[in-house]
Amino acid sequence: MNNKGSRVLEILRANRGITISGEEISSALGISRSAVWKQISALRNRGYRISARSRSGYCLEEEPDQLDEGVLAENDILYFETVDSTNLAARRLAEKGATSFNTIIADQQLTGKGRLGRSWFSPAGSGLWFSIIFRPLALTPATVSPVTLVTAAVLAEYLSSAFSLPVKIKWPNDLQVGGKKIAGILTEIKGDLDRIDYLIIGIGLNVNQKTADFPSAIVTSSTSLAIETKTRIKRTELLINLRHSLLQAYRLFEKEGFLPFRQTWIDYNRTLGQKVNISWPGGSLSGLASELTDEGRLIVKDELGRIHLVSYGEVS
Ligand code: BTN
């Protein structure tokens, strides 16, 4: 936040619960009213709820939960206020040699990436948008792909036990509560056919958004921890605990593969036993999702009784 922004915020804080006019702020700070308005809108973009009443002025209603940069640094997590995408930031670091488990978090992503070329809504002050660099020396591109299912299983188990929520995994790795998406995972790989250089595991978790914060295109299909638990959550602490569980899981996955996580994934999934339509760039398939293999592939039986093994796509 720039100096003008913090001074406007100071005045709003000092007048909490009171509406203060743009003119008063502008004369207190010796800046123009349009400069005040610019700072108010920048603060709103950072997650501050500021009501505006024509004629009377501005009132600070609520401050966002702040990610604590110092505590994150003590826990080996690199914080950015704003990045294009934490997956891209992680890739830039990995290219410079960053080691396994280096983690990057941003309060806001300007071009957050979703699966299948989609974008990921990543406003400031409300979510956990983070990426973990993973260099599994003993694995190959063929054996590493279930790492996304491992991530989904760990998130589902952690969120359901920490917040007593009925979290479900929609194959392969969408996390949902009550049929609405609460988190997504985007794993990207750099390597060649028989050797992994590194993976970037990107996780987006909706934490403190209210329903009105989601854009209309996703409002009916999205939810957050705050909406489901009706409480505001401290993101720093949540990230540190989640990362701890994830790193433990990745260490075990490197040694023993997907098998130790398969049952957890099955316990939380909502896809097995369902008729599904799976689509991917260039194809689609309908049938019964009957099982998950030990390697994390979905077994789908089509109407002609043919068995298909599916590794990626989108279920509807
Ligand atoms: C999905 O489409 O479900 C995957 C969404 C993944 C979003 C996360 S947010 C942190 C990381 N950085 C990105 O740009 N994307 C992932």
Description:
It is a single chain. This protein is α+β, with helices and mostly antiparallel strands and 316 residues long. The protein folds into three domains: 60 residues, Winged helix-like DNA-binding domain superfamily/Winged helix DNA-binding domain (Arc Repressor Mutant, subunit A, Orthogonal Bundle); 200 residues, BirA Bifunctional Protein, domain 2; 41 residues, SH3 type barrels (Roll). It is built from ten helices and 14 strands. A seven-stranded mixed sheet has the order 3-4-5-9-8-7-6, with helices on both faces. A five-stranded antiparallel sheet has the order 13-12-11-10-14, with no helix packed on it. A two-stranded antiparallel sheet has the order 1-2. The longest helix has 22 residues. The radius of gyration is 22 Å and the shape is elongated. It starts with a helix and ends with a strand. Bound molecules: biotin. The site of biotin has 21 residues, from helix 5, strand 5, strand 8 and strand 9.
The gyration radius over C-alpha positions equals: 22 Å
Distance between the termini: 42 Å
Strands, total number: 14
Bound molecules: biotin
Question: What name does CATH use for the topology of the largest domain?
Answer: BirA Bifunctional Protein, domain 2
Query: How many independent structural domains?
Result: 3
| Strand residue content | 25-35%
Shape: elongated
CATH architecture of the largest domain: 2-Layer Sandwich
Spell out the helices and strands N to C: HHHEEHEHEEHHEEEEHHHEEEEE
Poorly predicted ranges (pLDDT <50, ≥5 residues)?
A: none
Overall mean pLDDT = 94
Helical fraction equals 25-40%
Structural class: alpha+beta
The CATH class label of the largest domain is Alpha Beta
CATH-defined superfamily of the largest domain:
Bira Bifunctional Protein, Domain 2
Q: How would a textbook summarize the main sheet?
A: 7 strands, mixed
Number of helices: 10
Strand order of the largest sheet: 3-4-5-9-8-7-6
